[in-house]
Known about the structure:
Layout (H helix, E strand, L loop, with lengths): L1 H13 L5 H12 L8 H29 L7 H31 L14 H12 L8 H30 L9
Amino acid sequence: MDMIKVRIQLASEGGGATGFTAVAREIAAEGGAKAFYKGIDSALLRQAVYGTARMGLYLNLSESCKKSNNGANLSTLQKAGCAMTAGALGSFIGNPCDLALVRMQADSTLPVDQRRNYKHVGDAFTRIVQDEGATSLWKGSVPTMLRATALNVAMFVTYDTAKEVATASMGDTASPFSI
């Protein structure tokens, strides 16, 4: 689905087909079912890096705020601040994976002489650093960080608030799952 989304976004700028079915057919024509999984290693690495970084950062930041509140629950503003910081930093850390993923998914839309033909995420990282410099791994990081701040505020503030309400009404054993 992500591959189709990226291709629709690219096609909308270049005047190509933007319908879901048409784009899916184009991708399938490039290499069958396997073509839908271009960059899957980048996507999985991104999820592992970004997902764990933002969760770990949020938990540490919120615990630190809780200590400064003498153990009291965080205010909504404190939760939002922790979530924004965790999202921004986590997405900054994961941006090289995002960059590799988008390039791998978009590669076959480029003219043949401009294609990068990365073999895997490690090859993408190595060649980006060699050809463009290490800082190029963070191209597009600002919009990615802004998106992550909004996502994380919505997710973590809602989760923590719901957990506090459930815990208050049902006690500490309200949920066997806790982050």
